[in-house]
Amino acid sequence: MDLLPLLIVDGANVVGSVPDGWWKDRRGAAERLRDRLAERGGPEGGPFAGPYEIVLVVEGRARGVESVPGVRVEDAPGSGDDLIARLARDAAGRPCLVVTADRELRRRVEEAGAECVGPRSLP
Asked: Which helix (H) or strand (E) holds 39?
């Protein structure tokens, strides 16, 4: 059985890319992103055909968001970037796409063999 491509979403970076008041309720903003991912899936026109196994990485005051069918939420114990880089490394040999605009994180996950797209690629 072929594994679905892995989609790892940098929750803090994606939520922070839209100035909609997310800073007032970081957990609520992460929940809205999770629900949007569950409803719409991954990026349209990305390097891998969907559907994806979706992992949303949250950190800080966004921790504690529950997983839902279609989206696994991972609480970063420290840096979300470190967890995302580890998940990308662990996906070795499997198609992996990371959604972030963070340049340093993009470099780290691309070294691990993952592809990257920016937050605007999400529907």
From this structure: helix 26-40
- Beta strands 96-99 and 115-117 are parallel
**pLDDT, tens digit, 9 for 90 and up, residues 10-67:** 999 999 887 777 778 899 999 999 999 999 998 877 888 889 999 999 999 999 999 9
* Pairwise CA distance, residues 108 & 90, whole Å: 13
Report DSSP state, residue 24.
Answer: G
CA 82 to chain centre: 13
Q: At what angle do helices 103-111 and 80-90 cross, to 10 degrees?
A: 20
Look up residue 99 and give its two tokens.
């959604």
Return d(Cα 51, Cα 82) in angstroms, integer.
25
The answer to whether the beta carbons of residues 59 and 73 sit under 8 Å apart is no
Q: Are 24 and 62 in contact (CB under 8 A)?
A: no
The residue to which tokens 């070795």 are assigned = 92
- pTM, full prediction: 0.94
